[in-house]
Design goal:
Number of strands of chain A: 0
Oligomer: heterodimer
Number of domains of chain B: 2
Number of strands of chain B: 0
Strand content of chain A: under 5%
Number of helices of chain A: 5
Radius of gyration of chain A: 20 Å
Structural class of chain A: mainly alpha
Shape of chain B: globular
Order of helices and strands of chain B: HHHHHHHHHHHH
Distance between the termini of chain A: 44 Å
Number of helices of chain B: 12
Radius of gyration of chain B: 19 Å
Largest interface: A-B, 69 and 97 residues
């Protein structure tokens, strides 16, 4: 791929990405938003974060694996318990990574 | 500006920086991996950094680098970046009411910094009703993340090829999202949103361009609204419903 094409992709990617971010903050005033959508927005963080997490845990490498041999699932469950118990980002990440490393060694 | 309010804006900014720091544990390895991966996809170092500088969207950059490696047409790559980033419209809509009274310059700057991680951190604060100096707080979270993304991409480009692959550093990102998810689960509808979206995201994971993510988030929100409309199951159910 030529340098020109690559930089074209970068500029194009920048324009479309910035467009999605500007969409409601700058381009469409929030008053014009339907009421139902506005109420629904409150639940966006919970929904999107959960949707980002679970496939990474139950589909390592792209295939569904719900067994206890799936280190990412077990480590994720341990990290979830840690997150729930301590409500602390550092502890959650350290617990999950340690669990995954120990499981892959053992 | 009077000195008192200057202090508050500065403190809000620093609190934003502080609250974003733990998230960097998950983001920095991700940037490192991107730098490494971009080079192995045949992207020259300067353009690899250009992806992070100008697009500044983790998962879209990974998908784009993969398509570049497969020599996909440029318009397909740009369209894919758009689709992968459509979820930012949800973030934009969520933050818009809080940024409504800011100047255009502020709104343009905060939009530029609106990523998964900055959104998650800032929206938790706004949800708690702490909106005072919220724009400074959001700027603090966003700039911290932006700087970390640039530095970690550069490190990935420079030394990434020498990292051992057994570290499974990519796992740090879902763990970060897990830590961010927990404080949002404050009532029954938000639990329903998370459980519904999680189940849908696995069911739809084979859809191309990460479209499943978008449908799963939309489905989760719809489920939450349905649960919200239901009467509480028991008297205790009531106390978990905040406003």
């Amino acid at each position: 791929m030529s340098d020109w094409t690559l930089w074209g992709i970068i500029v194009g990617g920048m324009v479309v990405t910035y467009g999605t971010r500007l969409s409601f903050i700058v381009l469409v005033p929030p008053e014009r938003m339907p009421n139902l959508l506005r109420r629904g927005l409150r639940y966006v963080p919970s929904a999107i974060l959960a949707a980002l997490i679970l496939p990474e845990l139950v589909r390592p490498g792209g295939t569904l694996d719900l067994s206890l041999h799936n280190g990412r699932l077990v480590a994720g469950a341990i990290a979830a318990l840690a997150a729930w118990r301590f409500r602390n980002t550092w502890i959650t990440i350290v617990a999950g990574m340690l669990a995954l490393w120990l499981l892959s060694v053992g | 500006m009077p000195p008192a309010s200057q202090l508050t804006s500065r403190r809000a900014f620093l609190e934003g920086v502080r609250d974003q720091l733990p998230i960097l544990v998950g983001v920095a390895p991700f940037g490192l991996i991107f730098g490494t991966l971009a080079l192995s996809a045949g992207i020259p170092p300067l353009a690899a950094q250009g992806f992070s500088l100008f697009i500044f969207a983790g998962s879209a950059q990974f998908v784009a680098a993969g398509l570049v490696a497969e020599a996909a047409p440029a318009w397909v790559v740009v369209l894919t970046i758009l689709v992968v980033n459509l979820r930012h419209m949800l973030y934009s809509a969520t933050m818009a009411p809080h940024f409504q009274r800011l100047s255009l310059r502020w709104r343009a700057a905060l939009s530029w910094l609106l990523t998964d991680e900055a959104f998650a951190v800032a929206s938790v604060r706004f949800r708690r009703g702490e909106s005072e100096q919220g724009h400074w707080y959001t700027l603090g979270t966003g700039l911290t993340l932006w700087a970390a993304w640039q530095v970690s991409t550069a490190l990935g480009i420079l030394v990434g090829a020498n990292l051992p692959s057994g570290l499974a550093l990519d796992f740090a990102l879902p763990l970060t999202f897990l830590a961010l998810l927990t404080p949002t689960l404050t009532d029954r509808p938000s639990w329903a949103a998370a459980l519904g979206a999680a189940a849908l995201s696995v069911a739809l994971a084979d859809l191309p361009y990460r479209l499943g993510l978008l449908f799963a988030a939309g489905g989760g929100v719809a489920i939450a609204l349905a649960v919200e409309a239901m009467p509480p199951l028991s008297p205790q159910g009531k106390e978990t419903c905040d406003v």
